[in-house]
Design goal:
Shape: globular
Number of helices: 13
Distance between the termini: 24 Å
Radius of gyration: 24 Å
Strand content: under 5%
Order of helices and strands: HHHHHHHHHHHHH
Structural class: mainly alpha
Largest sheet: none
Helix content: over 70%
């Protein structure tokens, strides 16, 4: 049986006769972090910190001693570290969580290996080639790993590859088209991360991962729409505006469903920025600056007030 969540307890509280002491007992037993939970967290935190510093040390080692190292030493050290790390990741007696962390470190070392190879042989490849190869060669590990940090690394590589491809190769892509594509990529990833675990064959990803991906999608949409409204042709942002309207409507509904203040704050703030850009397109004189300032202050106040009201309502339902 899965561990009980706050949302489950809220539903049980509404449809049962549990008193406050019983609710508090369940919270202490199943919700609040215990000594063992903190020990597990600190153990994983220091493991991740140690692996991160190790990888950083490897990168700085090459950077500082680059001119004095033979090319075979450079490649040999990088490949050796990658092989050793990968072998540790598949060692069956290791803890599953630790194995996934080491696999993530190996995925980072793949990028280091490609960077070293490109510098030694001066392949002359575009930067997007480097990130594309990095993305392709860790795809299998990402699928097998089923780990949020590895997913985040993979998604960051995809975004970087698309951006650099547009900058270096597909220079006929407009700014609006590129950011529309990035918005769709991140929105699709977010929807997959939310929907796929519902069939119980995929791991439920942590909230911080979903929030980061959602924030990336919202940022791309906000930047593209604001830019298109102020400096571009309104017809060029029409498809993006339709996609964003649908995604934002679903996001607000989802935020209310799971009682998440993140979606109910990030999306309205994005809408405020977009509407503010529309006001500046209408006019950029001093009076419009004053009107826009009042609009932003009023909009932010309204969002914060509604969030506080919803938080009180949710707490009341839980109690």
């Amino acid at each position: 049986m899965n561990k009980i969540q706050r949302e489950d307890l809220s539903i049980v509280r509404q449809h049962s006769n549990l008193n406050e002491k019983e609710i508090e007992s369940i919270l202490e037993e199943s919700i609040y972090a215990k000594k063992d939970d903190w020990q597990k967290f600190l153990r994983l935190f220091f493991i991740v910190l140690g692996i991160g510093f190790t990888i950083a040390g490897i990168i700085f080692f090459f950077a500082y001693n680059w001119a004095d190292l033979n090319k075979f030493v450079k490649l040999g050290l990088t490949q050796g570290l990658l092989i050793v790390t990968t072998l540790f990741a598949i060692y069956p007696k290791l803890n599953t969580q630790l194995r996934k962390i080491i696999l993530t470190a190996a995925s980072v070392l793949v990028g280091v290996l490609f960077a070293v190879f490109g510098q030694i042989y001066q392949t002359g490849a575009n930067a997007y080639d480097f990130f594309l190869a990095w993305t392709l060669f860790i795809t299998l590990w990402v699928i097998v790993g089923n780990y949020a940090t590895l997913y985040l690394l993979y998604l960051a590589l995809i975004n970087t590859t698309l951006y650099l491809y547009a900058d270096q190769v597909a220079q006929d892509w407009s700014f609006i088209f590129l950011f529309t594509l990035l918005f769709l990529v991140n929105t699709t990833a977010l929807m997959a991360a939310i929907i796929l675990p519902q069939n119980k064959k995929h791991k439920i990803l942590p909230t911080w991962f979903l929030n980061i991906v959602a924030l990336a999608a919202i940022s791309f949409a906000t930047i593209a729409l604001a830019y298109g409204i102020v400096d571009g042709n309104l017809l060029s942002i029409l498809p993006l505006a339709v996609f964003v309207s649908i995604a934002y409507s679903v996001g607000i509904r989802y935020g209310l469903q799971i009682k998440s203040g993140f979606y109910l704050s990030a999306i309205p703030f994005s809408v405020i920025i977009i509407l503010s850009s529309l006001l500046f397109r209408i006019s950029d004189d001093e009076f419009m600056f004053f009107i826009n300032g009042l609009f932003i202050i009023g909009g932010v106040t309204l969002v914060v007030t509604n969030l506080i009201r919803l938080q009180k309502k949710w707490r009341k339902n839980e109690n």
